[in-house]
From TrEMBL:
This is DNA-binding response regulator. Residues 123-221 bind DNA. GO terms for molecular function: phosphorelay response regulator activity; transcription cis-regulatory region binding. Residues 123-221 form the OmpR/PhoB-type domain. Residues 1-112 form the Response regulatory domain. InterPro entries: CheY-like_superfamily, OmpR/PhoB-type_DNA-bd, Sig_transdc_resp-reg_C-effctor, Sig_transdc_resp-reg_receiver, WalR-like, WH-like_DNA-bd_sf. PANTHER family: DNA-BINDING DUAL TRANSCRIPTIONAL REGULATOR OMPR, REGULATOR OF RPOS. The modification 4-aspartylphosphate is found at residue 47. It holds the Pfam family Trans_reg_C.
Length: 223
């Protein structure tokens, strides 16, 4: 739990501990980065407004690590630009302040479900030409090279590949991939854009993850 507001950290940590989590706190970015190296946490709750190294830079540095630790961001209500940038940098989810601690616990549990043993996996690897996704091992490869994907990026890619040729609205993807029945649909847009940068030869003219105008997105096999 990374937040320089001791009251917020204390309340959130008490709720997370009641839910069965082992939680440690950091009040600044440098301490948080050192703690991740030392403790190898399963997830980081990260406030964007931090002294010294801010939350966006912490997020960027965590995304260079091979373990791909999931990140749930905390943002102020009016910080839409920072929220979008955080998602582009690889955050898996976000909660806006002021927030309900119970909602944050649910978001943490939702993200962890997608990294744990109960994550959805069909068993047989998914394949489309030079793109292959192994849901059991949670590994995606393009032309034999392993892709660096966040939890949500991997889940989104696997979901779309399991339903080739079917168009999904952003609201549908938000519910079926994120597990949200409500929320900011721009989250989906940001993740699709970031995923295209990793799986498309030309992200500006995508062949695999195509836009269905007025609807949402569709996975179009190219293999």
């Amino acid at each position: 739990m990374v937040d320089d507001d001791a009251t917020v950290s204390d309340v959130v940590c008490r709720y997370l501990r009641r839910a069965g989590f082992d939680v440690s706190m950091a009040a600044d970015g440098a301490t948080a980065l050192a703690a991740v190296v030392r403790d190898a946490p399963d997830l980081v709750v990260l406030d964007l407004m931090l002294p010294g190294i801010d939350g966006l830079e912490v997020c960027r540095r965590l995304r260079t690590r091979p373990d791909g630790v999931p990140i749930v961001m905390l943002t102020a209500l009016g910080e839409e630009a920072d929220r979008v940038l955080g998602l582009r940098l690889g955050a898996d989810d976000y909660v806006t302040k002021p927030f309900s601690p119970r909602e944050l616990v649910l978001r943490v549990q939702s993200v962890l479900r997608r990294t744990g043993s109960d994550a959805v996996a069909s068993g047989a690897p998914l394949a489309d030409g030079d793109l292959a996704v192994d849901e059991v091992r949670r590994v995606a490869r393009l032309r034999g090279d392993e892709l660096t994907l966040t939890v949500r990026e991997f889940d989104l890619l696997a979901f779309l590949m399991r339903h080739p040729g079917k168009a999904f609205r952003r609201a549908d993807l938000l519910e079926r991939v994120w597990g949200w029945t409500f929320g900011d649909q721009s989250t989906v847009t940001v993740h699709v854009r970031r995923l295209r940068e990793k799986v498309e030869d030309d992200p500006a003219t995508p062949r695999r993850i195509v836009t269905v105008w007025g609807v949402g997105y569709r996975y179009e096999p190219v293999g």
